[in-house]
């Protein structure tokens, strides 16, 4: 039976993640997301998604060293970045550099190692392109910082605070994987042709670029900017509701209850809100907005989605809106590569049928 966009059609069987929208549950490798990421670093969560079990101390130490070793981009890749048009978007630049990341040493790696290499290299590519686009000198990666802190270091040129690193790391861990979304499917289709992993990631990045999938939460950023302070929450929201405007950051196309990622981001922001004014504003704003929505729209059960607190975190670390989708991709590359590895293990090329409706 024909379904536009393949909605409701099972295309693959996977052991990587499951999304239960009616229950409001997201699981990595069969385990609820809050249990997976509890007090875990980016490196630990990535290892769990790739391998299906938590890393031992030795396995984690080896992964950390491998990720650090791939932070240095080849000279030819740095040169390519420098000659890209200034007006090129960050996502287009990332796609270009990933497509060129096929040097001899990389080609000799088996796919698990290639996944680690690309995961380590993508934040460096992003920081390089971003600072180049803003007329700033490239900030070289540091070997004494973890994956998340090093990304912020390269973007900002200064060591991030504990609150900034912890907030962003929670976001990255929560968005590494989310089932058979458009970019993941695109990557699996590419790898199913027995193409290479770089090509699969290029396909995924090209898909993530689309505003229907990886678009930045500009509406939420604008809302927080308009509110500015806790005492302005009620008047701003009441005016928007009176004018029939949509309150950005509330509601989700999949989850019919609270988005589990938003719940965990809220908890992290609550833990850190005393350390950052933007996180404090987001926590207070959600409480009051939810109350006002329940009063004005009873029975609608409108909850915050992951973009609400993601926007608060991006604002708290003073990250430019143009970096949101690239940062999303830096997290999701773990899921993309995990799916590519899984596809290779029992591969059948994707070849769906089409229904001719012409004359």
From TrEMBL:
Metabolic or biological pathway, per its Swiss-Prot or TrEMBL entry: Carbohydrate metabolism; tricarboxylic acid cycle
CDD domains per record: BsCS-I_like (cd06109)
Catalytic activity: oxaloacetate + acetyl-CoA + H2O = citrate + CoA + H(+)
Gene Ontology biological-process annotations: carbohydrate metabolic process; tricarboxylic acid cycle
GO cellular component annotations of the record: cytosol
Any single Pfam family the record assigns to this protein: Citrate_synt
Cited PROSITE patterns: CITRATE_SYNTHASE
Similarity section: Belongs to the citrate synthase family.
Protein name as it appears in the record: Citrate synthase
Organism encoding this protein: Planococcus rifietoensis
